[in-house]
Amino acid sequence: MCEKPHQAAVGEARSGSPAVKGEPARDTAQRLSIRLADSAEWRERLKPCNGCDECGARCVEGFQVTREEYLRLKGHWESLPAEERERLGGRPRELPWPGAPEFSYTACRFRDPENGRCSVYPVRPLICRLFGHAEWLPCPIGRIPSPSPDARLMIEEYAREELRTIEEWDREIGD
Question: pLDDT class for 144, splitting at 50, 70, 90?
């Protein structure tokens, strides 16, 4: 179960970011995330996700984000209680694949498998917001019947930005 239901949290695309409600977004990922949050069609698409965490097991290390997304993630992470950061930072990230324990994967550093949630959900990157709604990132349990027609256009726009893995941003920007 997620810390906050997806349906309610979709409006949090603005939180943890430099934009203020009513002001224009300052980067592509944020602007696209706000467009999703403000879309009645998108909110309707998210209803089956409310409280579901089945896609969470697909949250793996190595995805790419923009610099601005990285900074929002880092800021949100640092705002978590120290004991929460220690608990999540000290857990094994090599996890068994659901339904096939003979295989494993390296979980995203922000994934909290013990509580079935994302620790940075309110500021999650656009790629995470599109999971289950894009043809190349389908819902793993089939709750979302068809991909969003906007997903491809959004990811094409997003891909024009400078994208790096969180680990690469860590090395460049540092702690």
Answer: confident
